Each structure stands twice: as structure tokens, then as C-alpha cells.
């Protein structure tokens, strides 16, 4: 008489496999949550941070984001500020002089046309085509801030630009367009502007504009660099002058 021998672990093996499957599902869910939560953490807390109130207007035209005040007159001078969101010297200048610039704009003493650049997104030749095709942090910042300027929301523009400069070491190369959009929303941007930032065409809305600004700067001064303060096609601050004095010097200009 033969005896059928069965695997005493056969039933247990099936249960073990299902246990492994369940564990993998749980692990995947946890990883997904961590990734999702990490994405949100990039801009978490911006709404709670102290935001600056502004009493100025913002307009966009021909590559320039112009900050002005209703107190400005036909005699109020206008200067151009060239800056790159990846430039540490631009961040240093913003920390040192944005307060003075804001006061001068709001009291009608100065108009500032900010011309964003993206030359630090590329290496090698700074020709127009190369700059226009850039897709890095600076180009994304250009696209985002220009959408805010187009919307006319001066407070949202000012606070996002302030974050990109003051917290440059924290946000540099960390944000995608979704993060720029989330930040703009927390600073008070309307839904249409938030969507425009999220869906921005980096070439048309960022690279082309930054490249045109770079070509304008190069044509007028012979080189592309930042930060630069330009008046009537010439540098306001000389090589041996302290650039942090630019606001006071600009206020003394004639319109």
C-alpha cells in the first residue's frame, strides 16, 4: 500500500506569498506618500511666513517687469535692474538693497524695470539661441515671475521674487514649475495665474524673454553679467563703486 506524501508547508506557502504581496503594497503606499509629502514640503510654510505688504504697481512689457507707484511723476527716474535667480551676487544685492528700493518706489522717487536673465542656466556660449533653449532654475523663475507681473499682482510678485533671492540657497534647482505655482498661490496669486505658471512654456515664457534681455544688455554694454543697474544704456555704478549705493544714486537721476 502506497502512502501519498504531501508538502506540509504547501498551504502555508500560499499564505506567505499573499503576505509578501500585502507588505509590498503597504511599502509602495508609504513611499508614494513620502514622495508626495516631500513635493508639498518644498513650498510648505510660505503662507505662514511674514509677507511684505507693498504699495506699488507691477506691469510687464517687452521683457521688463516695471515696478512703480501712483506717486511717481513724469520727473521720476527709471532704471533697469538686470538679475539672475541663480546669481549669488544678485541675492546679496537683493538682501542689501531691496528695502531701500521698495521705499524709493513706493514714495514715488524711483521706477525700476527689472529685466530677468538666465545666463547661469547654460555653459559655454551665451548666444541668443542657447539662452532661449535653457530650461534650468533661472529660466523657470523668469517664467513664473513674469506671469505674476502680467497678472498685476504686485504683492505676489514681490514676495515670490524676494523668496527666490533671499532663500536662493534653499530653493535653487529644487523647484519645478509646480512648486513655483504653489508658491505663487500661497502669496496670493489667482487660480488663472497659478495655472499659467504651472503650464508655462519654458522657451516662450522664459528662455526667449531672458535671452532677449541678455542681448539687449550685451548690445548696450558689451557684456552679459549680473547684477547690473542700467540707465540710458550705461552702467549706473562704476567698477570701483559700491553697488549697494545704487538706489540713492538712482534717485538723483533725471527722468
Shape: globular
Q: What is the rounded distance between the termini?
A: 113 Å
Describe the sheet with the most strands.
Answer: 6 strands, mixed
Indicate the CATH architecture of the largest domain.
Answer: 3-Layer(aba) Sandwich
The whole-number mean of residue pLDDT values reads 89
**SS elements, strand count:** 6
Which value, in Å, is the CA radius of gyration?
Answer: 26 Å
Number of helices: 10
Q: What's the SSE pattern?
A: HEEEHEHHHHHHHEEH
The tally of domains stands at 2
**CATH overall fold name of the largest domain:** Glutaredoxin
Residue fraction in strands = 5-15%
Poorly predicted ranges: 29-37
Q: Provide the structure class.
A: alpha+beta
CATH superfamily of the largest domain: Glutaredoxin
User: If strands are numbered along the chain, what order do they take across the biggest sheet?
Assistant: 1-2-4-3-5-6
**Which CATH C-level class of the largest domain is it?**
Alpha Beta
Which percent bin holds the helix content?
40-55%
Organism: Corynebacterium phoceense
Domain Thioredoxin-like fold: 77-237
Transmembrane segments: 16-36
Pfam families: Thioredoxin_4
Amino acid at each position: 500500500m502506497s502512502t501519498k506524501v504531501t508538502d506540509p508547508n504547501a498551504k502555508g506557502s500560499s499564505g506567505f506569498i499573499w503576505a509578501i504581496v500585502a507588505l509590498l503594497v503597504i511599502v509602495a503606499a508609504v513611499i508614494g506618500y513620502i514622495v508626495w509629502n516631500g513635493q508639498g514640503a518644498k513650498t510648505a510654510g510660505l503662507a505662514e511666513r511674514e509677507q511684505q505688504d507693498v504699495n506699488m504697481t507691477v506691469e510687464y512689457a517687452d521683457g521688463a517687469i516695471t515696478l512703480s507707484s501712483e506717486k511717481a511723476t513724469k520727473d521720476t527716474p527709471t532704471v533697469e535692474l538686470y538679475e539672475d535667480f541663480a546669481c549669488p551676487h544678485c541675492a546679496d544685492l537683493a538682501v542689501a538693497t531691496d528695502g531701500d528700493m521698495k521705499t524709493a518706489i513706493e514714495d514715488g522717487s524711483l521706477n525700476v524695470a527689472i529685466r530677468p536673465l538666465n545666463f547661469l542656466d547654460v555653459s559655454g556660449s551665451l548666444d541668443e539661441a542657447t539662452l532661449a533653449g535653457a530650461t534650468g532654475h533661472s529660466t523657470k523663475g523668469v517664467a513664473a515671475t513674469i506671469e505674476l507681473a502680467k497678472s498685476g499682482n504686485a504683492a505676489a510678485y514681490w514676495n515670490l521674487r524676494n523668496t527666490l533671492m533671499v532663500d536662493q540657497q534653499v530653493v535653487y534647482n529644487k523647484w519645478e514649475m509646480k512648486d513655483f505655482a504653489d508658491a505663487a498661490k500661497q502669496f496670493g496669486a489667482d487660480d488663472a495665474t497659478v495655472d499659467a505658471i504651472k503650464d508655462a512654456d519654458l522657451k516662450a515664457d522664459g528662455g526667449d524673454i531672458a535671452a532677449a534681455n541678455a542681448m539687449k544688455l550685451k548690445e548696450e554694454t558689451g557684456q552679459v553679467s549680473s547684477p547690473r543697474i542700467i540707465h540710458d544704456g550705461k552702467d549706473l555704478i562704476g567698477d570701483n563703486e559700491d553697488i549697494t549705493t545704487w538706489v540713492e544714486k538712482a534717485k538723483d537721476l533725471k527722468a
